[in-house]
Amino acid sequence: MKSTERISVALPKGRLLDVILRLLSKADIEMVSYKSQSRRLVFQDKCGHFQFFMLKPVDVPTYVEYGVADVGIVGRDVLLECQANVYQPLDLGVGQCTLAVAGLEGTAQADYKGLSAVRIATKYPRITTEYFTQRGVPVEIIYLSGSVELAPLLGLSERIVDLVSTGRTLAENGLEIIESICNVSARLVVNRASYQLKRPAVTNLIKRLTDVSPKTECSRPEL
After folding, report:
1. Which are the contacts of 47, defined by CB distance < 8 A and separation ≥ 6?
2. Domain that holds residue 208
3. Pick from 213, 94, 103, 96: which is nearest to 165 by CA?
4. What are phi and psi of 30, to 5 degrees?
5. Same structural domain for residues 53 and 153?
6. Domain at 164, CATH number
7. Helices (H), 13-82
8. Residues 6+ positions from 107 with CB-CB distance below 8 Å
9. How many CA atoms does the CB half-sphere of 72 hold within 13 Å?
10. What is the DSSP letter of 63?
């Protein structure tokens, strides 16, 4: 690494973590004494250039936006929902899935004409509201933090909006995709001040991850 300046990295616990750690390893960045079952939340890398924080995915953009972490890795779905003021220089191309509208098999339709407000259960109230508002469809949002697939089965909602990877969970619960809202993958996010103050270290990290990522979408800083 050309720069010896240390930078802090916020990582999301959960489904993305293992694939992110493999990507970091390809970039020759490995944490010291990391164990998947450990309750530790702060780790160092073997070269002493990085400090890693383990966070809930929804908290990663907040830690980066407020400068506690210089950079972070998190799904695009989280970024769209929270709308944090962070720089997003790189699509890492891992953790790919789809944010979609789903409903019970045989009753799903994308045409909402003639319906009153559609009741939708989701972990993504902001994205869901904006998506349907832009289409002129009135909705009633029911926020759930997990197991949204149960909502249509038990009559809590007519539709759900959730992440879909293989579609297996939907199928096993008698649901099907009605329409896709957007594609989702892991993104590298950077604190705007850190991008200026620690530019050599941050840009070096961006380059290393770009070189090992299966798909990237580099963009100019949004200053």
Report:
1. 1, 29
2. 7-95+185-212
3. 96
4. -135, 140
5. no
6. 3.40.190.10
7. 17-26, 60-65, 76-82
8. none
9. 32
10. H
- Give the pair of three-digit tokens for residue 80: 């769209």
> DSSP string spanning 176-206?
EEEEEEEEE-EEEEE-HHHHHHTHHHHHHHH
Task: Answer whether residue 2 is part of any domain.
Answer: no
- From first to last of its 223 residues, what are the pLDDT tens digits of the chain? 445 689 999 999 988 999 999 999 999 998 887 776 677 888 989 888 999 999 999 999 999 999 999 999 999 999 999 999 999 999 999 999 999 999 999 876 666 666 678 999 999 999 999 999 998 899 999 999 989 999 999 999 999 999 999 889 999 999 999 999 999 999 999 999 999 999 999 999 999 999 999 864 444 334 3
Confirm whether 219 is domain-assigned. no
Q: Give yes or no for a contact between 38 and 82, defined as CB atoms under 8 angstroms apart.
A: no
Among 193, 203, 103, CA closest to 155: 103
Count each helix (H run) and each strand (E run) in the chain, helices first: 8, 11
Same domain, 198 and 167: no
Integer Cα distance of 132 and 136 in angstroms = 6
SS3 content of the chain, % helix, strand, coil (to 5): 30, 30, 40
Number of domains the chain contains = 2
28/79 same-domain check: yes
Q: Is 222 a member of any domain?
A: no
CA dist., res. 79 & res. 68, Å (int): 17
